[in-house]
Amino acid sequence: MQDQRRSFLKKTLGASAVVAAVGVSAIANESGVTIAGSNGVVKGKSKKKEILYKKTANWDAYYHAAV
To answer: What's the rounded mean pLDDT across residues 13-24?
Structure first.
């Protein structure tokens, strides 16, 4: 009985992992995101400007302490 349960769980988890992988790849293809040939960098079609750093007093204190 235990072996039947274990084999059932293995089959179900394997199938759900395959379905999840297919779903994620379909969503990525649908959204216009390209990964292939870009050295791992994901490029999209967003027109928003990406802000990585905003000068604040806290950042100044952090950088002065680090140096």
So the answer is: 73
